[in-house]
Protein backbone atom coordinates (compact mmCIF):
# COMPACT_ATOMS: atom_id res chain seq x y z
CA UNK A 1 0.00 0.00 0.00
CA UNK A 2 1.26 3.46 -0.81
CA UNK A 3 1.67 5.59 2.33
CA UNK A 4 2.57 8.78 0.50
CA UNK A 5 1.00 11.95 1.84
CA UNK A 6 -1.83 13.51 -0.15
CA UNK A 7 -1.38 17.28 0.04
CA UNK A 8 -4.99 17.99 -0.92
CA UNK A 9 -7.45 18.76 1.86
CA UNK A 10 -9.30 15.55 2.56
CA UNK A 11 -12.83 15.28 3.73
CA UNK A 12 -12.71 15.33 7.52
CA UNK A 13 -15.01 12.61 8.77
CA UNK A 14 -15.75 11.50 12.30
CA UNK A 15 -13.18 8.70 12.18
CA UNK A 16 -10.36 11.16 11.43
CA UNK A 17 -11.45 13.41 14.31
CA UNK A 18 -11.69 10.51 16.77
CA UNK A 19 -8.27 9.13 15.79
CA UNK A 20 -6.66 12.55 16.14
CA UNK A 21 -8.25 13.15 19.55
CA UNK A 22 -7.21 9.71 20.79
CA UNK A 23 -3.58 10.23 19.83
CA UNK A 24 -3.57 13.77 21.26
CA UNK A 25 -4.89 12.40 24.55
CA UNK A 26 -2.19 9.71 24.62
CA UNK A 27 0.46 12.42 24.06
CA UNK A 28 -0.79 14.22 27.18
CA UNK A 29 -0.72 10.99 29.21
CA UNK A 30 2.79 10.08 28.03
CA UNK A 31 4.18 13.53 28.80
CA UNK A 32 2.67 13.35 32.27
CA UNK A 33 4.46 10.02 32.87
CA UNK A 34 7.83 11.26 31.55
CA UNK A 35 7.63 14.80 32.90
CA UNK A 36 7.70 16.45 29.48
CA UNK A 37 5.54 19.18 27.98
CA UNK A 38 3.06 18.11 25.28
CA UNK A 39 3.21 19.79 21.88
CA UNK A 40 1.99 19.01 18.35
CA UNK A 41 5.49 17.82 17.47
CA UNK A 42 5.17 15.08 20.10
CA UNK A 43 2.40 13.50 18.03
CA UNK A 44 5.06 12.21 15.63
CA UNK A 45 6.79 10.46 18.56
CA UNK A 46 3.42 9.14 19.72
CA UNK A 47 2.69 7.58 16.33
CA UNK A 48 6.13 5.93 16.42
CA UNK A 49 5.40 4.51 19.88
CA UNK A 50 2.10 3.10 18.71
CA UNK A 51 3.73 1.75 15.55
CA UNK A 52 5.97 -0.50 17.67
CA UNK A 53 2.88 -2.20 19.13
CA UNK A 54 -0.15 -2.00 16.85
CA UNK A 55 -1.05 -3.83 13.65
CA UNK A 56 0.22 -2.29 10.43
CA UNK A 57 -3.31 -1.87 9.03
CA UNK A 58 -4.40 0.09 12.12
CA UNK A 59 -1.25 2.19 11.94
CA UNK A 60 -1.94 3.14 8.31
CA UNK A 61 -5.47 4.16 9.21
CA UNK A 62 -4.25 6.40 12.03
CA UNK A 63 -1.63 7.95 9.76
CA UNK A 64 -4.33 8.75 7.24
CA UNK A 65 -6.40 10.43 9.95
CA UNK A 66 -3.56 12.52 11.37
CA UNK A 67 -2.38 13.59 7.94
CA UNK A 68 -5.90 14.62 6.94
CA UNK A 69 -6.46 16.72 10.07
CA UNK A 70 -3.01 18.36 9.89
CA UNK A 71 -3.46 19.13 6.18
CA UNK A 72 -6.87 20.68 6.93
CA UNK A 73 -5.27 22.99 9.54
CA UNK A 74 -2.53 24.10 7.14
CA UNK A 75 -5.08 24.87 4.43
CA UNK A 76 -7.80 26.47 6.58
CA UNK A 77 -5.59 27.85 9.43
CA UNK A 78 -8.05 26.41 11.92
CA UNK A 79 -8.65 22.98 13.39
CA UNK A 80 -11.69 21.12 12.09
CA UNK A 81 -14.79 21.01 14.26
CA UNK A 82 -14.69 18.25 16.87
CA UNK A 83 -11.00 18.53 17.81
CA UNK A 84 -10.80 18.51 21.61
CA UNK A 85 -9.85 21.78 23.30
CA UNK A 86 -6.29 21.17 24.53
CA UNK A 87 -4.08 24.20 25.19
CA UNK A 88 -1.08 22.79 23.35
CA UNK A 89 -3.27 21.99 20.33
CA UNK A 90 -5.29 25.20 20.21
CA UNK A 91 -2.27 27.48 20.64
CA UNK A 92 -0.21 25.76 17.92
CA UNK A 93 0.94 27.99 15.06
CA UNK A 94 1.47 27.23 11.39
CA UNK A 95 5.22 26.65 11.79
CA UNK A 96 4.85 23.99 14.50
CA UNK A 97 2.06 22.17 12.65
CA UNK A 98 4.06 22.44 9.42
CA UNK A 99 6.97 20.65 11.10
CA UNK A 100 4.58 17.90 12.20
CA UNK A 101 3.28 17.67 8.63
CA UNK A 102 6.84 17.17 7.37
CA UNK A 103 7.45 14.39 9.90
CA UNK A 104 4.34 12.58 8.75
CA UNK A 105 5.90 12.00 5.33
CA UNK A 106 7.37 8.75 6.70
CA UNK A 107 5.73 5.52 5.58
CA UNK A 108 4.11 3.15 8.05
CA UNK A 109 7.10 0.79 7.86
CA UNK A 110 9.49 3.66 8.59
CA UNK A 111 7.41 4.55 11.65
CA UNK A 112 7.64 0.94 12.83
CA UNK A 113 11.45 1.05 12.60
CA UNK A 114 11.57 4.40 14.39
CA UNK A 115 9.12 3.14 17.00
CA UNK A 116 11.35 0.35 18.29
CA UNK A 117 14.13 2.83 19.12
CA UNK A 118 11.81 5.47 20.59
CA UNK A 119 9.87 2.91 22.64
CA UNK A 120 13.06 1.44 24.12
CA UNK A 121 14.31 4.84 25.31
CA UNK A 122 11.02 6.04 26.74
CA UNK A 123 10.21 2.74 28.48
CA UNK A 124 13.67 2.78 30.06
CA UNK A 125 13.03 6.32 31.26
CA UNK A 126 9.61 5.40 32.65
CA UNK A 127 11.07 2.44 34.57
CA UNK A 128 13.84 4.66 35.97
CA UNK A 129 11.14 7.05 37.16
CA UNK A 130 9.55 4.14 39.05
CA UNK A 131 6.65 3.36 36.73
CA UNK A 132 4.33 1.05 38.74
CA UNK A 133 4.28 -1.97 36.44
CA UNK A 134 6.24 -4.08 33.99
CA UNK A 135 8.04 -2.75 30.93
CA UNK A 136 5.17 -4.03 28.78
CA UNK A 137 2.74 -2.08 30.98
CA UNK A 138 4.90 1.01 30.54
CA UNK A 139 5.04 0.56 26.74
CA UNK A 140 1.25 0.41 26.53
CA UNK A 141 0.75 3.32 28.92
CA UNK A 142 3.21 5.50 26.99
CA UNK A 143 1.66 4.62 23.65
CA UNK A 144 -1.92 5.02 24.84
CA UNK A 145 -2.78 1.55 23.55
CA UNK A 146 -5.37 -0.50 25.38
CA UNK A 147 -4.48 -4.20 25.89
CA UNK A 148 -7.01 -5.45 23.34
CA UNK A 149 -5.51 -3.18 20.65
CA UNK A 150 -1.97 -4.27 21.35
CA UNK A 151 -0.06 -6.73 19.21
CA UNK A 152 1.57 -8.19 22.32
CA UNK A 153 0.31 -9.03 25.76
CA UNK A 154 1.90 -8.01 29.04
CA UNK A 155 3.92 -10.77 30.64
CA UNK A 156 2.36 -11.99 33.85
CA UNK A 157 5.22 -12.10 36.33
CA UNK A 158 3.87 -15.38 37.69
CA UNK A 159 4.41 -17.02 34.32
CA UNK A 160 7.68 -15.42 33.20
CA UNK A 161 10.22 -17.80 31.74
CA UNK A 162 12.98 -18.37 34.33
CA UNK A 163 16.64 -17.60 33.74
CA UNK A 164 18.24 -20.92 34.59
CA UNK A 165 21.85 -21.42 35.66
CA UNK A 166 22.53 -22.81 32.21
CA UNK A 167 20.96 -19.73 30.56
CA UNK A 168 23.20 -17.50 32.66
CA UNK A 169 26.30 -19.53 31.83
CA UNK A 170 25.49 -19.30 28.11
CA UNK A 171 25.21 -15.52 28.37
CA UNK A 172 28.46 -15.33 30.33
CA UNK A 173 30.19 -17.45 27.69
CA UNK A 174 28.90 -15.17 24.94
CA UNK A 175 30.44 -12.17 26.75
CA UNK A 176 33.57 -13.90 28.11
CA UNK A 177 35.93 -11.86 25.91
CA UNK A 178 35.11 -8.88 28.12
CA UNK A 179 36.55 -9.42 31.65
CA UNK A 180 34.64 -7.77 34.49
CA UNK A 181 37.62 -5.61 35.44
CA UNK A 182 37.60 -3.94 32.01
CA UNK A 183 34.47 -2.05 33.01
CA UNK A 184 36.24 -0.16 35.79
CA UNK A 185 39.35 0.35 33.65
CA UNK A 186 37.41 1.97 30.81
CA UNK A 187 34.61 3.90 32.56
CA UNK A 188 36.65 7.12 32.55
CA UNK A 189 37.68 6.60 28.94
CA UNK A 190 35.88 7.89 25.90
CA UNK A 191 34.74 4.37 25.01
CA UNK A 192 33.53 2.27 27.94
CA UNK A 193 33.61 -1.52 27.66
CA UNK A 194 29.84 -1.75 28.06
CA UNK A 195 29.85 -5.53 27.65
CA UNK A 196 32.18 -5.93 30.63
CA UNK A 197 29.90 -3.59 32.56
CA UNK A 198 26.92 -5.67 31.44
CA UNK A 199 28.52 -8.78 32.99
CA UNK A 200 28.80 -6.94 36.33
CA UNK A 201 25.19 -5.81 36.14
CA UNK A 202 23.81 -9.20 35.09
CA UNK A 203 25.45 -11.03 37.97
CA UNK A 204 24.87 -8.29 40.57
CA UNK A 205 21.16 -7.99 39.78
CA UNK A 206 20.70 -11.77 39.60
CA UNK A 207 22.35 -12.19 43.00
CA UNK A 208 20.65 -9.33 44.83
CA UNK A 209 17.58 -8.18 42.88
CA UNK A 210 18.85 -4.60 42.68
CA UNK A 211 17.26 -2.24 40.18
CA UNK A 212 19.78 -1.43 37.41
CA UNK A 213 20.21 2.18 38.52
CA UNK A 214 20.88 1.01 42.09
CA UNK A 215 23.96 -0.94 41.01
CA UNK A 216 25.74 2.35 40.28
CA UNK A 217 25.55 3.52 43.91
CA UNK A 218 25.62 0.36 46.03
CA UNK A 219 28.23 -0.09 48.79
CA UNK A 220 29.67 -3.07 50.66
CA UNK A 221 30.37 -2.59 54.35
CA UNK A 222 32.57 -4.75 56.58
CA UNK A 223 33.74 -4.73 60.17
CA UNK A 224 36.54 -2.40 61.20
CA UNK A 225 39.67 -4.50 61.73
CA UNK A 226 40.84 -2.07 64.42
CA UNK A 227 37.64 -2.40 66.44
CA UNK A 228 36.44 -5.13 68.78
CA UNK A 229 33.04 -6.72 68.23
CA UNK A 230 31.35 -8.74 70.91
CA UNK A 231 29.20 -11.74 69.92
CA UNK A 232 26.14 -9.68 70.90
CA UNK A 233 27.19 -6.84 68.57
CA UNK A 234 27.73 -9.24 65.67
CA UNK A 235 24.28 -10.79 66.18
CA UNK A 236 22.73 -7.33 66.30
CA UNK A 237 24.50 -6.39 63.04
CA UNK A 238 23.06 -9.50 61.41
CA UNK A 239 19.56 -8.70 62.73
CA UNK A 240 19.53 -4.95 62.01
CA UNK A 241 22.41 -4.05 59.68
CA UNK A 242 20.95 -0.70 58.58
CA UNK A 243 20.48 0.56 62.14
CA UNK A 244 23.92 -0.63 63.17
CA UNK A 245 25.49 1.03 60.13
CA UNK A 246 23.96 4.32 61.29
CA UNK A 247 26.02 3.97 64.47
CA UNK A 248 29.21 4.15 62.43
CA UNK A 249 30.62 0.80 63.57
CA UNK A 250 31.02 -0.53 60.01
CA UNK A 251 33.28 0.68 57.23
CA UNK A 252 33.04 0.62 53.41
CA UNK A 253 35.41 -1.71 51.58
CA UNK A 254 36.92 1.38 49.94
CA UNK A 255 38.73 1.98 53.25
CA UNK A 256 40.43 -1.44 53.31
CA UNK A 257 44.15 -1.54 52.67
CA UNK A 258 44.66 -3.14 49.24
CA UNK A 259 46.68 -6.34 49.20
CA UNK A 260 48.89 -6.85 46.12
CA UNK A 261 48.47 -10.61 46.34
CA UNK A 262 44.72 -10.77 46.79
CA UNK A 263 41.43 -9.92 45.15
CA UNK A 264 38.81 -7.60 46.59
CA UNK A 265 36.82 -10.65 47.64
CA UNK A 266 39.88 -11.91 49.56
CA UNK A 267 40.16 -8.56 51.35
CA UNK A 268 36.52 -8.79 52.39
CA UNK A 269 36.97 -12.38 53.55
CA UNK A 270 39.99 -11.33 55.58
CA UNK A 271 38.03 -8.54 57.27
CA UNK A 272 35.23 -10.99 58.07
CA UNK A 273 37.66 -13.52 59.52
CA UNK A 274 39.25 -10.89 61.76
CA UNK A 275 36.08 -9.17 62.98
CA UNK A 276 33.41 -11.85 62.67
CA UNK A 277 31.16 -9.34 60.89
CA UNK A 278 29.67 -10.59 57.59
CA UNK A 279 29.83 -8.31 54.53
CA UNK A 280 26.79 -6.06 54.20
CA UNK A 281 25.50 -4.81 50.85
CA UNK A 282 23.95 -1.36 51.27
CA UNK A 283 21.62 -0.38 48.41
CA UNK A 284 20.48 3.19 47.95
CA UNK A 285 16.78 2.92 47.15
CA UNK A 286 15.70 4.24 43.76
CA UNK A 287 12.09 4.49 44.94
CA UNK A 288 10.92 7.88 46.20
CA UNK A 289 7.45 7.01 47.55
CA UNK A 290 6.09 4.36 49.86
CA UNK A 291 2.70 3.24 51.09
CA UNK A 292 4.06 3.73 54.62
CA UNK A 293 6.25 6.82 55.08
CA UNK A 294 7.64 5.50 58.38
CA UNK A 295 8.89 2.35 56.60
CA UNK A 296 10.69 4.10 53.77
CA UNK A 297 14.45 4.05 54.13
CA UNK A 298 17.03 5.72 51.94
CA UNK A 299 18.97 2.43 52.00
CA UNK A 300 18.13 -1.24 52.36
CA UNK A 301 20.61 -3.82 53.56
CA UNK A 302 21.43 -7.36 52.47
CA UNK A 303 23.74 -9.69 54.38
CA UNK A 304 26.12 -11.58 52.09
CA UNK A 305 26.61 -14.67 54.24
CA UNK A 306 27.65 -17.82 52.35
CA UNK A 307 28.29 -16.09 49.01
CA UNK A 308 30.79 -17.68 46.60
CA UNK A 309 34.10 -15.87 46.08
CA UNK A 310 33.51 -15.26 42.37
CA UNK A 311 30.12 -13.70 43.09
CA UNK A 312 31.51 -11.61 45.94
CA UNK A 313 34.28 -10.33 43.67
CA UNK A 314 31.75 -9.08 41.12
CA UNK A 315 29.68 -7.38 43.83
CA UNK A 316 32.87 -5.70 45.08
CA UNK A 317 33.45 -4.36 41.56
CA UNK A 318 29.87 -3.07 41.51
CA UNK A 319 30.46 -1.41 44.87
CA UNK A 320 33.31 0.60 43.33
CA UNK A 321 31.23 2.09 40.52
CA UNK A 322 30.24 5.05 42.71
CA UNK A 323 33.81 6.37 42.38
CA UNK A 324 33.11 7.29 38.76
CA UNK A 325 31.50 10.71 38.73
CA UNK A 326 29.02 10.56 35.86
CA UNK A 327 26.16 12.86 35.03
CA UNK A 328 22.62 11.52 34.99
CA UNK A 329 22.49 11.26 31.23
CA UNK A 330 25.52 8.94 31.18
CA UNK A 331 23.86 6.64 33.72
CA UNK A 332 20.85 6.40 31.41
CA UNK A 333 22.93 5.95 28.25
CA UNK A 334 25.00 3.15 29.80
CA UNK A 335 21.86 1.26 30.85
CA UNK A 336 20.43 1.67 27.36
CA UNK A 337 23.66 0.40 25.75
CA UNK A 338 23.88 -2.56 28.13
CA UNK A 339 20.26 -3.48 27.38
CA UNK A 340 20.98 -3.52 23.65
CA UNK A 341 24.09 -5.67 24.20
CA UNK A 342 22.09 -8.06 26.37
CA UNK A 343 19.32 -8.39 23.78
CA UNK A 344 21.86 -9.11 21.04
CA UNK A 345 23.79 -11.61 23.18
CA UNK A 346 20.61 -13.42 24.23
CA UNK A 347 19.53 -13.82 20.61
CA UNK A 348 22.80 -15.66 19.91
CA UNK A 349 23.24 -17.56 23.17
CA UNK A 350 19.60 -18.38 23.94
CA UNK A 351 17.76 -18.72 20.62
CA UNK A 352 15.15 -20.97 22.26
CA UNK A 353 13.83 -18.22 24.54
CA UNK A 354 10.50 -16.72 23.54
CA UNK A 355 10.76 -13.59 25.71
CA UNK A 356 13.20 -10.70 25.30
CA UNK A 357 15.74 -10.33 28.09
CA UNK A 358 16.64 -6.98 29.62
CA UNK A 359 18.34 -5.97 32.86
CA UNK A 360 15.05 -5.99 34.75
CA UNK A 361 14.59 -9.65 33.75
CA UNK A 362 17.31 -10.59 36.27
CA UNK A 363 15.53 -8.60 39.01
CA UNK A 364 12.25 -10.31 38.16
CA UNK A 365 13.96 -13.71 38.24
CA UNK A 366 15.47 -12.92 41.64
CA UNK A 367 12.02 -11.97 42.97
CA UNK A 368 10.44 -15.16 41.66
CA UNK A 369 13.12 -17.32 43.29
CA UNK A 370 12.92 -15.34 46.52
CA UNK A 371 9.12 -15.74 46.68
CA UNK A 372 9.58 -19.51 46.60
CA UNK A 373 12.15 -19.44 49.42
CA UNK A 374 11.08 -16.59 51.73
CA UNK A 375 8.08 -14.90 53.29
CA UNK A 376 6.58 -12.09 51.25
CA UNK A 377 7.71 -9.37 53.68
CA UNK A 378 11.26 -10.73 53.58
CA UNK A 379 11.25 -10.52 49.78
CA UNK A 380 9.98 -6.93 49.99
CA UNK A 381 12.80 -6.02 52.39
CA UNK A 382 15.40 -7.46 49.99
CA UNK A 383 13.96 -5.83 46.87
CA UNK A 384 12.88 -2.45 48.20
CA UNK A 385 9.27 -2.88 47.09
CA UNK A 386 7.05 0.01 48.13
CA UNK A 387 3.71 -1.63 47.38
CA UNK A 388 2.46 -5.00 48.59
CA UNK A 389 1.07 -5.77 45.13
CA UNK A 390 4.57 -5.50 43.66
CA UNK A 391 5.80 -8.44 45.73
CA UNK A 392 2.65 -10.53 45.41
CA UNK A 393 2.88 -10.15 41.62
CA UNK A 394 5.65 -12.74 41.61
CA UNK A 395 4.52 -16.35 41.88
CA UNK A 396 6.03 -19.77 42.29
CA UNK A 397 5.24 -21.13 38.84
CA UNK A 398 7.78 -21.83 36.10
CA UNK A 399 10.74 -21.97 38.50
CA UNK A 400 12.83 -25.07 38.88
CA UNK A 401 13.80 -26.03 42.37
CA UNK A 402 17.24 -27.61 42.37
CA UNK A 403 17.72 -30.71 44.44
CA UNK A 404 19.03 -29.66 47.82
CA UNK A 405 19.66 -26.10 46.74
CA UNK A 406 16.38 -24.42 47.63
CA UNK A 407 16.71 -22.27 44.53
CA UNK A 408 20.32 -21.18 44.80
CA UNK A 409 22.14 -18.66 47.00
CA UNK A 410 20.09 -15.84 48.47
CA UNK A 411 21.26 -12.93 50.65
CA UNK A 412 19.83 -12.59 54.14
CA UNK A 413 17.44 -9.71 54.73
CA UNK A 414 17.37 -6.98 57.33
CA UNK A 415 15.17 -8.77 59.90
CA UNK A 416 14.21 -5.56 61.66
CA UNK A 417 13.04 -3.96 58.42
CA UNK A 418 11.24 -7.09 57.23
CA UNK A 419 9.38 -7.32 60.54
CA UNK A 420 8.34 -3.67 60.28
CA UNK A 421 6.95 -4.37 56.81
CA UNK A 422 5.09 -7.41 58.12
CA UNK A 423 3.45 -5.38 60.88
CA UNK A 424 2.61 -2.15 59.10
CA UNK A 425 2.47 -2.81 55.36
CA UNK A 426 -0.58 -1.43 53.64
CA UNK A 427 -1.06 2.10 55.08
CA UNK A 428 -2.59 4.48 52.58
CA UNK A 429 -0.61 7.77 52.66
CA UNK A 430 2.36 8.30 50.40
CA UNK A 431 5.61 9.64 51.74
CA UNK A 432 8.98 10.92 50.56
CA UNK A 433 12.43 9.60 51.41
CA UNK A 434 13.91 10.57 54.71
CA UNK A 435 16.66 12.89 53.49
CA UNK A 436 18.00 13.42 57.01
CA UNK A 437 18.39 9.65 57.52
CA UNK A 438 20.16 9.40 54.15
CA UNK A 439 22.65 12.08 55.14
CA UNK A 440 23.00 10.58 58.61
CA UNK A 441 24.13 7.28 57.13
CA UNK A 442 26.42 9.09 54.68
CA UNK A 443 28.08 10.93 57.55
CA UNK A 444 28.44 7.75 59.61
CA UNK A 445 30.18 5.92 56.77
CA UNK A 446 31.96 8.82 55.12
CA UNK A 447 30.07 8.24 51.88
CA UNK A 448 29.68 10.67 49.00
CA UNK A 449 26.14 10.03 47.76
CA UNK A 450 25.09 11.53 44.41
CA UNK A 451 21.53 12.62 43.83
CA UNK A 452 20.16 10.43 41.03
CA UNK A 453 16.67 11.94 40.73
CA UNK A 454 15.03 13.27 38.70
CA UNK A 455 16.36 11.61 35.57
CA UNK A 456 17.25 13.62 32.46
CA UNK A 457 15.20 14.00 29.33
CA UNK A 458 16.12 11.31 26.80
CA UNK A 459 16.85 12.68 23.38
Automatic annotation (TrEMBL):
InterPro entries in alphabetical order: Integrase-like_cat_sf (IPR013762)
One GO process term, biological-process aspect: DNA integration
GO molecular function, one term: DNA binding
Domain of life the protein comes from: Bacteria
Residues spanning the membrane: none
Region Disordered, annotated ranges: 138-157
Protein name: Phage integrase family protein
Record organism: Sulfitobacter litoralis
